[in-house]
């Protein structure tokens, strides 16, 4: 049996179209005349006809209507001040002196990019000269009572 020919078994992954064959692709959603009646969209229903809009929940009350509405108004032009109390000023600057935003930022009390307001919490024992910062009425009276001054320029 030396003349025996080898037999090969054809398997699924060996199959390929015949030379010159050309099978047209299915054009989905182009009607019955284009290969296969329902065009790969099943039968009936919205999905067979056109697409469903985003957020559609099949007639159930949608999420965007179930959630509560936002109330009120948020002012986009609101100025937010960085707050510093008098007690902190006395703690960081025990000798007093002339203070502005740059001096406060150098000591790490505030950042340079936002306006500063000094509030009247605490007692003042030394004279402060504040320039270029907002000051509350109570803070102003305490600073002036201690011999200091305020100019909000």
Describe the SSE topology.
Layout: H1 46-49, H2 63-66, E1 82-85, H3 86-92, E2 97-99, H4 101-106, E3 116-119, E4 128-131, E5 134-135, H5 137-145, E6 149-151
Parallel strand pairs: 1-3, 2-4, 3-5, 4-6
Subunit structure: Part of the 50S ribosomal subunit.
GO biological process, one term: translation
Pfam families: Ribosomal_L27A (PF00828)
Written overview of the protein:
The chain has 2 domains: 25-71, no CATH class; 82-151, Ribosomal Protein L15, Chain: K, domain 2, CATH 3.100.10.10. The chain is built from 5 helices and 6 strands; from the N terminus they run ααβαβαβββαβ. It has helices at 46-49, 63-66, 86-92, 101-106, 137-145; strands spanning 82-85, 97-99, 116-119, 128-131, 134-135, 149-151. A 3-stranded parallel sheet has the order 1-3-5. The protein has a 3-stranded parallel sheet with strand order 2-4-6. The radius of gyration is 40 Å and the shape is elongated. The model has no long low-confidence stretch (mean pLDDT 88).
